[in-house]
Amino acid sequence: MKLLRWASGLGLLVATVAVVVVDNPFWLVGALVVGFALRAGIWRNLSASLRSALPVVLFAVAIVLMQWLARVPVTSLAAKTLAVFLFSTAAFRLLPWTDAVAATRPGTAFHGFLLYLLFTRHFVNILTVETSRILQARSLCVVRPYGRGAFSSLAWGLASLFSRSLARAERFYAAQLLRGFAE
Amino acid sequence: MKTMLEVRGLTFGYDSEQPCLRDISFSVGEGECVGIVGANGAGKSTLLWCLLGLLKAKGVVNVLGERMSKRNLGRIGVVFQNPEDQLFMPTLMQDVTLPLMNRGATADAAADRARAALRSMGLEHLGHRPASQLSLGERKRASIAAALAGSPEILLLDEPTAELDGRSVRQLTRVLADLPIARVITSHHLDFLRSLASRLLVLWQGKIIAEGPTQQILSDAGLLESAGLI
After folding, report:
1. What is the pTM of this model?
2. Structurally, how many domains does chain A consist of?
């Protein structure tokens, strides 16, 4: 099972590189279809998996809009961005890389890279929790979505996310420094 | 008694005009448990960060007679207020073994020490689970296990009882009371410190305003009130 996960994960990483290189629109559309199918298949909750892809979909749409507004040719950049996101996150899910951290030798570049991935994942989780707390706190005081202060509270909430994240990042860094990871 | 930790004239301020720690001096002996007690904002956590060299302060911090530096950080175990700052691996066992292996221990030796540390905290059966799936009390004890696995000579704990329920506080008190090493605990939980610390330092607005045996300090209602503790 683990071998299969390694094989399919590495295959997806190769596919991630391939979608960057390929420019054929049919291949790109095919890659997007496969990417979304993978996301729906690998994530247990279909609607949550598609919802979590929404920011990247919006980012891709924004790229197309900006190219169109600037009257430059609309390139395949948006489709590639989306495909890279879909394949790399699926690979991230499939590869049993967290097991590899304990199996690799500390001090090697690969071990360092895996630790970096773990730190990043941990910090993304922290950011997600902090964001949901801010939005929850805001929803308690902003009842009307377009009422007075609805947008400014969102802006202030997002601004406070930076200071909160910075404080958490500092504490996390200090803790890992003391555990010997930055020696 | 051998001096494990010695602090002399420690002064620190984010703003040089207004230091938030002023002329802090104290020492901790072998096997001793010292409580640093103070109201919110008194400077307890800042003091710990200065002791560890995470914030650059004026003054002297000696660990077993040597100046505090990155070299002797391994002699100190630290437990942060929020366990999420320390535990991030896929399983608790990996969280405890990884720093040991990172410092050069073999996988087998690290696993043995990790198991022993988790057992001492009553968590051996949870070694295969990620920290995120444990209760806060278990996560706190897991952080202590991770700190103890490195065989520190001094253990620093920052607000260990924060957000814990009564039962978890009692469990934590039991495991900390049994430790033979020097311990420095910052807290404003007076009952917790009463059952653990032999000596208390009272911090108020960045200064140590009183120091003495726990019973003596905790029976001085006027002092506790002026320090914002009751």
Report:
1. 0.77
2. 2
